[in-house]
Amino acid sequence: MAKDAYRGPLERTSETTWRIPKSYRKGMRVDGIVYADDKLVELIRHDEALDQVANVAHLPGIQTASLAMPDIHWGYGFCIGGVCATDPAAGGVISPGGVGYDINCGVRLVRSNLNAADVAPVQSQLVEELFRNVPSGTGQGGNYRFTPRELKQLMGDGVPFLVERGLAVESDLDHTEARGKIAGAEPDYVSERALQRGYDQCGTLGSGNHFMEVQVVEAVFDDTAARAMGLAQGMVCVMIHSGSRGLGYQVCDDALRLLRKAPEKYGIHLPDRQLVCAPIESPEGQHYLGAMCAAANFAWCNRQLLMWQARECFATVFNRSWEALGMNLVYDVAHNIAKLEEHAVDGAQKQVWVHRKGATRAFPAEHPETPDAYKHIGQPVIIPGDMGRASWVLVGQPGSMEQTFGSACHGAGRVMSRNAAIKHAQGRRIDKELADRGVIARARSWKGLAEEQPDAYKNVDLVVEVVHRAGLAKKVARMRPIGVIKG
Amino acid sequence: MSYETFDHTADVGLRVQASELNRLFADAGRGLFSLIVPDLASVRPLESIHLELSGEPSELLLFDWLSELLFIYETRRLLLCEFDVMVSESGVSATARGEPIDAVRHQLDHEVKAITYHGLKLERQGDGWLAEVIVDI
After folding, report:
1. Radius of gyration of chain B (CA)
2. Strands, E, within A254-295: which ranges?
3. CA–CA separation, A487 vs A417, rounded Å?
4. Has the ipTM of the complex gone over 0.85?
5. Which pTM does this prediction carry?
6. Interface test with A, best of B113, B134, B137 (most A CBs within 10 A)
């Protein structure tokens, strides 16, 4: 990777924002705005992410700016860490690349009544139990099977489908974005191929950057918000990061195929084929939206079943029910999704499609979609970091509505390619190094750990600091990992 | 072997060079499976399947070919290691051989989520061909 791969203009506009002016490239309809501090901006310049921010600014109907969070890095088409809102009334488009292959990839956090001292004597046993029982890695089927008919019902109904089957409880719904069911799902638009890929994958982690972690609340920064979420210093939690598995990847793949000729048909000029899109109101756009929403519901069910299995593992190890262990869901939030939301654009309220590609919704207190339990503090924003250092819990702030279509960052962001990470890990035992830091990590392969080693990521603390200072989301708690399972 | 990986921040790039298209498609198939099971030699060619894909010989046909192989892997849990490929003006006709995943003998690495269009390339290079494709990990 070339040092300073980006050679275009980047003007500082505030302590935490940088601007790529729309004059940079012919065809850009709006500026690019990047959130970063001095340190992060240097890392961001090293790959092609900034040119991708400029590419997204070409999309018809884009509003205000092509936005990038401080964890941005080179993706395919859209950068990862990008936010883009399009207005259907202004010829706005929907772009599957703006959601990504892993539709509704997201994170959930589960609390418990346990503290670090309760877990210490059984730390290895607990991680082992999770690793043995929660399917992870490639080529692994899950513990739950659904017939094609059930799968369609699951995609139409979302997590409420699992409540009926005793695999979720009402309070899980109350603490899931969109209550685990996004409106507009059209399971019949999901292809046979996608159903075949997904039939035994609901309740599986996958591989890559997906994980299940046992964490300890290391520090609390906002007592009121932490109390509302049931979090306290020293408490043991579980964080789960996964998405819509093969089913969602196939929905995206099908859509990109369907849209191959759409730019020509609708006279849209694009700088990268991976940005293919169609007007929201077009048959192609509507087809993708119906299938995307169905895959998003599948993803919420996937994380619900992953959590359910984690609860069972804890119940086995501690010989108490998950209810007795207080393993309640704090929140589940999507970070690869497109949603129709109301936002202020140039002083007017508009319904826009917000594409969040590696960005987390961060609605403030009193927003109608912020769940009741959090109405007074804002919506929890869950930010996974890396497996050695930390993850974070934040709450959405009014600044997100004013600046970023209600969005914040979604993670630390990679800084090292997978090849570079493997070279960096040669001759090392990442699992031993993590154990020295008090983290027990289990993965299906050495490479899995090597590629995901802490050094492969930016320091999540720096990323969170930018989001906090920019007023997009406020720090609530810093979480330290003690157990990790990976694909 | 004429495939190699190249750097991409979040994902993995696959670069394939071959003297002719048939060979290039076959090597791209091997390259793809080498990401899933790095020791391709551990996969035995016990089962064979036939594939037919239509389309002009272009980077999109290569995309479709790799996507099809990925679909076969994921839905049949079949690791493929040998490919006889005929690329014509109208598409691909191929026989692929391999065996189902054996948890004991096969050390699996990556789950390849998808083949992407980003930086997708198939072009003449000197007397031969060059292809580049970035896969989503």
Report:
1. 14
2. 278-279
3. 18
4. yes
5. 0.95
6. B113
